[in-house]
Design goal:
Blueprint lengths: L10 H9 L10 E2 L48 E6 L1 E2 L15 H7 L4 E3 L6 E3 L2 E6 L5 E6 L13 H14 L6 H4 L2 E8 L2 E6 L4 H7 L27 E7 L3 E6 L13 E6 L3 H10 L4 E4 L4 H5 L4 E16 L10 H9 L3 H6 L7 E2 L24 H10 L6 E8 L4 H14 L2 E8 L1 H10 L5 E7 L4 H8 L14 H12 L3 H17 L4 E14 L2 E2 L14 E2 L3
Parallel strand pairs: 2-12, 2-13, 16-17
Antiparallel strand pairs: 1-3, 4-5, 6-7, 7-9, 8-9, 10-11, 11-12, 13-19, 14-18, 14-19, 15-19, 20-21
Helix pairs in contact: 1-12, 8-10, 14-15
């Protein structure tokens, strides 16, 4: 049996991606919605700048200019800002709950990171660290820390606190939410009071820098490392836990000693967990909630509801048919995977089963992401059943192949699977559909490797190095068939070693091209539109393509 690299995308994470609130990144949060009753998992939209035209819905707003945050005096800083969420974190500690997807705003309110990924621009910038420098061989990276930061319990944030967190995380092993990332780290050393060095077990400094924008770069007061009380979590973020009812409500107050008061646009943050999309929509219209994020299927209803601001933007969550080449006839032959791609009419899926909310693409990352390669249009594979038949014949399968489409019992996936089945039949692929409960489906494909395919919406987001590692390297945790490409294998260590972001992005674009050309075991169909809704008095509500937090949102001063 192959030994696999630990995956950040857990069973719970992929289940949430199927039925959650459209978060862009994988996380081990929980959903307040029973996935079997949710129909938002397979609804999605994207706008691909290349490829055939489509009638799929367009975003209602594009990214605003970088100086578009309202002026400080525009906010009512004594207000309570109420955010409605479909999902909630499994834990408020960054060592236990992952720092992404639908729970990202909750975690980001409590925890700053060494490096900040701006959700509007996608740029990395100093946060808890003021600067960093990698060793010449990229086997270590040293961070200079801010000297004006304290944890919410008043303890100082310094190099010793970082070392305590790293040692605690390594001791947790696979129980740590960032276990996959910690596999890259040998340890951390306090060089002086505000300088910490991470020693790595390979040339990974560039990849580690990206991971520091999420849970790996977040810390709690050493005194609270072993405290299981969610209200006791003491992070370094702009808000501190005050009244926590896990899975129901998370109330936080602005931390009075926070180092950047401009990020505190209101006095209290109240996050309400609500499973019903209409309740959230109506609550925003009435002013009960100030804002929330909902699946794109709600967009039309929201636009027709008085008192609701509707903002949408292209996301990196995609509808994907992931293959296990070991279990598919001819799965080791690139022409067979090309035939599967060529058989799919992405326009028909986007405008039919996906209700006009999915724009064709063949790449994991959309055009706003630096890893997107503009040379590969959505119609790259031809969308041609005759071509698919010829490719199968050339691969030695003149009578076609059999293929099982394994997917969720969630109702919205059924029409997608049925359209794929029909399209495959035209191309000489005898397709059957198997619907499985979420946990059985995800573990059957990723952990057990017993399923041929995995039809789901997957979050291809930040950091791309971690996604590459888990999905497209031979030992990736979400790559049961061991698919890999020698050119990607060669690019990966270069990407992980360089801290030059322009160089890293160039390499990632090469990876995107290889995923299409090779082609990879991920048959990407479309991206979603992320949808933000706000009440009439909400300000700073922008389309944030690289995640989201509360550093721009607030209530307008009267």
């Amino acid at each position: 049996m192959r030994t696999r690299i630990g995956a950040l995308v857990t069973v719970a994470a992929l289940t949430l991606a199927a039925c959650g609130d459209g978060g862009d990144a994988d996380d081990n949060s929980s959903s307040s919605t029973d996935g079997a009753d949710s129909d938002d998992g397979a609804s999605g939209t994207t706008t691909e700048p290349t490829g055939p035209s489509t009638t799929a819905s367009e975003p209602t707003a594009s990214s605003p200019p970088l100086d578009s945050k309202p002026a400080p005096e525009a906010y009512d800083r004594e207000a309570t800002f109420t955010w409605a969420s479909l999902v909630y974190p499994s834990d408020l500690s960054p060592h236990v709950g992952l720092f992404s997807g639908g729970v990202q705003p909750i975690m980001a309110a409590l925890h700053d990171r060494l490096v900040n990924l701006d959700p509007l621009t996608g740029e990395m910038a100093p946060m808890l660290a003021t600067s960093w420098e990698a060793s010449t061989d990229a086997t270590s990276i040293t961070f200079q820390l801010r000297e004006d930061v304290t944890f919410h319990d008043g303890a100082p944030f310094d190099a010793e606190a970082v070392v305590a967190n790293v040692e605690h995380a390594i001791a947790m092993g696979d129980e740590n939410a960032n276990a996959s990332a910690y596999e890259l780290i040998d340890g951390a050393t306090a060089v002086d009071e505000y300088t910490v060095r991470y020693d790595l077990n390979g040339a990974f400094a560039g990849g580690l820098l990206e991971l520091m924008t999420q849970g790996l770069g977040a810390f709690v007061s050493p005194a609270t490392l072993d405290n299981a009380d969610p209200a006791a979590v003491a992070g370094t973020g702009p808000f501190m836990a005050s009244d926590i009812s896990p899975g129901q409500r998370y109330e936080m107050d602005a931390y009075p000693d926070y180092w950047d008061p401009s990020a505190q646009n209101f006095a209290t943050l109240d996050i309400v967990i609500e499973s019903n999309e209409d309740t959230i929509l109506n609550g925003i219209a009435s002013g009960e909630f100030n804002a929330g994020r909902l699946p794109p299927a709600v967009k039309t209803r929201a636009e027709q509801t008085a008192g609701v601001q509707v903002i949408s933007e292209l996301s990196n969550t995609a509808m994907v048919l992931t293959l296990n080449p070991e279990l598919i006839e001819g799965g080791d032959n690139p022409d067979v995977i090309r035939a599967i791609n060529a058989a799919i009419d992405r326009d028909e899926l986007g405008n039919g089963a996906l209700r006009g909310e999915c724009v064709p693409t063949v790449q994991p990352w959309n055009q706003s992401h630096p890893a997107h390669n503009p040379e590969y249009a959505a119609d790259f594979y031809g969308n041609d059943p005759a071509l698919a038949r010829q490719l199968l014949a050339d691969a030695g399968y003149p009578n076609g192949i059999a293929l099982e489409i394994d997917t969720y019992t969630i109702p919205a996936y059924i029409p997608v699977a049925e359209v794929l089945q029909s399209q495959f039949e035209e191309a000489g692929i005898d397709a059957s559909i198997k619907q499985l409960d979420s946990s059985v489906l995800v573990s059957g494909f990723t952990a057990e490797g017993t399923l041929q395919t995995f039809l789901s919406r997957l979050p291809f987001y930040q950091p791309p190095t971690n996604l590459l590692r888990n999905w497209w390297l031979a030992d990736g945790g979400n790559n049961p068939g061991g698919w890999h490409d020698p050119e990607i294998d060669a690019l990966y260590p270069q990407i992980m070693a360089t801290t030059d972001l322009d160089e890293q992005n160039d390499l990632l674009r090469e990876v995107s091209g290889r995923l299409v050309e090779a082609p990879s075991s991920s048959v990407v169909i479309c991206h979603e539109i992320a949808l933000w809704l706000g009440s009439e008095d909400t300000i700073g509500l922008f389309a944030l393509p690289f995640g989201y937090d509360f550093r721009r949102m607030g209530i307008g001063a009267s």
